[in-house]
Amino acid sequence: MRGCEFSREDSESCHGFDPRAPHRNGPLRIYGYMNQSSTGQMPEMEEVDTNESNGLAKRVALISFLSLVMLMSVLGNLLVMVAVCKDRQLRKIKTNYFIVSLAFADLLVSVLVMPFGAIELIHQNWIYGETFCLVRTSLDVLLTTASILHLCCISLDRYYAICCQPLVYRNKMTPLRVALMIGGCWIIPTVISFLPIMQGWNSIGINDLIEKRKFSGNSTVCVFMVNKPYALTCSVVAFYLPLILMVLAYQRIYITARAHARQISMLQRAGGAGNADSADHQRNHRMRTETKAAKTLCIIMGCFCLCWAPFFITNVVDPFIDYSVPEQLWAACLWLGYINSMLNPILYAFLNKSFRRAFLIILCCGHKRYRRPSILGPGVTCTATQINGSTHVLKTPQSLRRHSCLHLLRR
C-alpha cells in the first residue's frame, strides 16, 4: 500500500486529510503516516476502538442509572398518593395531606425536570430553545423548593401536635389551616422561581458570562447562573431557613418525647400504670405513635438535607469564587438532589407500618392477608359512649361478645 503524497491540489482528496488544517484532522486520521506492527495491525486504531468501547460503556451505565432514578421516583410517588387516597385510616391523619402534596411535587420533578436534564447530560447539548430552558429552570427551582417547604410544614405540624397543644390538636389543626399551609408551600416557591427567572433578575451583572457559557464549542447548553443577591436570597428561603426551623422543631420533639418516656417509666415502677384509666392509656398510646412518626419524618428530613445540602452550599459559594465550580460537580450535586425525590417513598415503605400495609394491599391487589383484621367478626356490633373522658360500652342486644368490644375500644 502506497502512502499518501500530498500537494496543494490534492490535499483534500487523500483520505479527506488536509495537512494545512491540523485542527480539523486529528493525528489519528493520518493513515499514511501510521506505523504498522509486524502483524499488519494499527496500534493507534486499536486504542481508538478501546476508547470508544469505554465511552459507550460509560454512556450505557449513565443512561441506565438515570432511567432507574426517574422510573423509581415516578412509581414510588404515585404509590404514596394512591395509598393515601385508597386507605381510610391514612386519610384521617392530617400530616398525610402534606405527604401527598410532597409526593406530588416529587412526581412533577421526575416527570417535568429530570428527563430534560438527563437528555442534556447525555448529549451535552440543549435543543429545546432558550424560552423552554427558562421554563424548565423555573420548574426546577419551584418544585425542589416546594419539597423542602412541605417537610418544614410537616415538622411544624408534629411540633404543634406533640409539644404545644397535643390534647386540642385535632380541633386547632382544621382542614382550612392545612389547606393554607399547603398553599403556602406552592405560592412561595412560585414567587422565588418563575417571577425572577423569567424577568432575568438572577442574571443581572453576569449576562456576558452566561452568553459565553451558552455557546461553548459547537454545542448549546441550558445555563442557569445566579448573581450574588439571588443566590443568597433563594438559598435562604428555599433551604437554610426551613432547615433551621426543622432542626429546632425536631429537637424540641425529641426532648418532649424523652420527658414523657421518663414519666411513663416512673409510673410503671411505682405501680401506677396498672391503675391508669383508659384516657391516660389512650393519651400515652397516642404519644408513642406521634413520637414514632416524628422519628420517621426526622429520618426523611435528614435524607433530604444530605441530598440537597451539597447543591445549596455550592449555589452560595460559586458566585463568590468567580463561578469556577466545575460543570461535573454541578451535575453531581444536582442529581444527588433529584435522587431525594426517589427516596421518600422508600422511607415510607420501610419506616411507617401504616404506609407499608397500604403499599402491600395495593401491590398485592387487595389480598386479605394484608388487610386490617376485624376483631368483632361479621355481624357483631357494639355501641360506646364517653363519660368524664372514660369510654364505656352500652348494653345492647348486639353486644353478646362484650369482651371483644372492650378489647377493640382499648386498642
Strand order of the largest sheet: 1-2
Any idea what the CATH architecture of the largest domain is?
A: Up-down Bundle
Helix residue percentage: 55-70%
* Assembly context of the chains: single chain
Number of helices, counting only DSSP H or I runs of 4 residues or more: 12
Distance between the ends: 91 Å
Order of helices and strands: HHHHHHHHHHHEEH
Estimate the mean pLDDT confidence.
Answer: 76
Q: What is the fourth-level CATH superfamily of the largest domain?
A: Rhodopsin 7-helix transmembrane proteins
CATH class of the largest domain: Mainly Alpha
Number of domains: 2
For the biggest sheet, the summary is: 2 strands, antiparallel
Query: What do we call the CATH topology of the largest domain?
Result: Rhopdopsin 7-helix transmembrane proteins
Question: Which regions are unreliable across 5 or more consecutive residues at pLDDT < 50?
Answer: 1-39, 374-411
| Secondary structural class | mainly alpha
Q: Using DSSP, what is the number of strands?
A: 2
GO molecular function, one term: alpha2-adrenergic receptor activity
Domain G-protein coupled receptors family 1 profile: 76-348
Region (Disordered): 1-21
Family: Belongs to the G-protein coupled receptor 1 family.
